[in-house]
Design a protein that fits this description.
2 copies of one chain form a homodimer. By secondary structure, chain A is an alpha/beta fold. Chain A is built from 13 helices and 12 strands. Chain A has 3 domains: about 45 residues, no CATH class; about 140 residues, 3-Layer(aba) Sandwich (Rossmann fold); about 140 residues, Rossmann fold (3-Layer(aba) Sandwich). Strand 2 of chain A pairs antiparallel with strand 2 of chain B, so a sheet runs across the interface. Chain B binds a DNA duplex through helix 2 and helix 4.
Chain lengths: ~350, ~350
DNA sequence: TTGTAGGCGTTATCAA
DNA sequence: TTGATAACGCCTACAA
């Protein structure tokens, strides 16, 4: 009969009995403190051998309860269908696994209560640290900040510039702002005078709008919302896919009646929709209108004309997050810092 | 001074003391078993009030250790960069969260040892169940099957048809095979006589090759590997992106010298590369060659001509996985079953 | 160098 | 209807 692995009966006591030693001796040896305490090599070998033979697996619940670290990190991440490949959870889990940590994953949803509850839940599971990525800064409410501050090790992964304020814990910011500035710079350098931003009018995009307008102003171009922003209505659960949503909005809000010679879309799907829409309305891309997307989908270079975009590098970002986390885990009194990761403009044909 | 949330000193004992009750009474009430056992309403109210006021948070480590259930599910999933949006981990985590379960996430990598180790680790964390998704069936080695069998609740999420064999535990299979058959049916129905499959020659694609060849044979078409398969070399870590990889391979292995009038690619990226390659070599899509991809990337319909593909519905799949898991969790002696989820052909212009 | 005993915070089992 | 008391499995002093 197969044994239920979740009720493995082999405990520290079993090993102690089989070796004829005490529980504590076995515990010490198994935790690698044998040499430190000068326990006979022979004894140690015996312990290891018996443990292996018996298939002993420490119960992490028990060791966590008894005060040891739990070797667990809580991940509270949003599932964003607008990221081209959302591999952040797996990447973090993978990197942390390599460092000997295991991960709790919770989808933060876009709901303050879920976030609060999940953080508390993680605390009650005694995670050694947390990574929290708010869908956008709006979710960094005082309540959430407070709960976050109660973890001794935390890394905040933000996607827009952030003001530390009362926040303890390290901040890693992968901001699109520099990317947007690069895009506008490129527009201007290649002679465009009326760049426009096509974006959903959501809170999470406010910072993009601001960055875009700031970039325009810097170049002495008109930046008023009426002239520089084409608003797409909010994407809702029941809507068709993102590409179609943008396309429909371009149709119904008559993009072709607006005056512009360059268009930055807040997603690659939207940018592709724009290219198709414009071509159908006899506007050449990039000759008449330069088009740029955001996020740099793997397929961007397969679009005709190849789609220029703003690239974010989730791998680098994750690596840095994990690095900061581990540092803090190993040196509890490390001062929290702030890392700025730049996104960068990838020039391709659609941008001229 | 802020308190370290991980060292919350408010325990069950605190609540007991403050209410003047015993720990067990408090425990029962807090676990909602007060009415069942007929504990006075007044007492219950008092317990709840005090617990709230004190900010009592149960320690899940302790309750896991003492009780039977940990309300935790282990997720062992591969991170596949070839899925258009890999939202499976988040979706599972989300659905399970709604059912009151929390999730351990581990990237299974494509490594037998990691899988074995991770499963054992999950066991030692006393998860109530596991979801395991092998990157492909090759990873269902006897050793892994055995470890998997030791969980009393497990769901296997496979992407190719699977032979149960010794496997206990529920199986959910989201197979591309039916989709591939539909594609070939469509090719034949629209008059194509020489369909070809462009695929990486990896173990995980063997079943696709077989399905494709079987479909051809069924229609009395030549199915030999020389005529029906265009092999793409394995995608390696250092390679450029998938789109470019396919494009390079088409170039270097002279796709244009092969004779075919329909092409199924094992990824949408590859299919887009094919479309661009063919057009550059003066072959019209779909008139001269019908092209179909796999997975139905969100951008497929934005390609020109719109890319036909085979759609997998990760949401349905995840829902079913969670449903089966919960069923088994609630009825431990439920017989394990097998669910077959079909992928389906989405016809668009590129397929004629 | 090894063993003993107490505690971590819950849940479960009885008894009252 | 409530309260002791014994697990659960491990860790860490402290004693020997």
């Amino acid at each position: 009969m197969l044994m239920d692995i979740t009720r493995n009966r082999i405990t520290l006591q079993s090993v102690a009995t089989h070796t004829g030693l005490g529980r504590s001796t076995v515990s010490l040896v198994l935790n690698g403190r044998g040499n430190e305490l000068g326990i006979a090599k022979k004894t140690q070998d015996r312990v290891f051998k018996v443990a292996r033979k018996l298939g002993y697996r420490p119960n992490s619940l028990a060791s966590g309860l008894a005060g040891k670290k739990t070797q667990t990190i809580g991940l509270l991440l949003p599932s964003s269908p607008f990221y081209p490949q959302n591999l952040i959870p797996q990447e973090l889990s993978l990197l942390l696994h390599r460092q000997g940590y295991h991960t709790y994953l919770v989808d933060s949803l876009q709901d303050q209560d879920v976030i609060l509850e999940s953080l508390t839940e993680m605390a009650s599971r005694r995670v050694d640290g947390v990574v929290f990525s708010p869908y956008h800064n709006h979710f960094l409410t005082p309540a959430i900040r407070e709960v976050l501050n109660q973890f001794s090790v935390s890394v905040l992964l933000a996607h827009e510039p952030i003001v530390r304020g009362s926040l303890r814990g390290h901040i890693v910011c992968e901001s699109v702002v520099p990317g947007i500035h690069e895009v506008v710079d490129h527009f201007v350098k290649t002679g465009r005078r009326r760049p426009m931003l096509a974006t959903n009018m959501t809170t999470s995009n406010q910072c993009k709008i601001k960055a875009f307008q700031a970039a325009l102003s810097r170049h002495g171009l008109k930046a008023g919302e009426e002239v520089s922003v084409f608003g797409i209505s909010r994407y809702l659960e029941g809507d068709p896919d993102y590409y179609t949503h943008f396309l429909n909005q371009f149709e119904s809000k008559h993009l072709d009646e607006r005056e512009f010679d360059a268009l930055l879309c807040t997603s690659d799907e939207g940018a592709v929709a724009a290219i198709n829409y414009l071509q159908e309305h006899n506007r050449r891309v990039p000759e008449d209108v330069a088009v740029v997307g955001l996020n740099d989908t793997p397929l961007a270079k397969g679009i005709r004309p190849p789609l220029a975009s703003v690239q974010r590098n989730y791998r680098n970002t994750c690596e840095l997050v994990v690095k900061r986390l581990i540092e803090k885990l190993n040196q509890p009194d490390l001062e929290p810092g702030y890392d700025d990761l730049r996104t960068k403009f990838i020039r391709r044909e659609s941008a001229g």
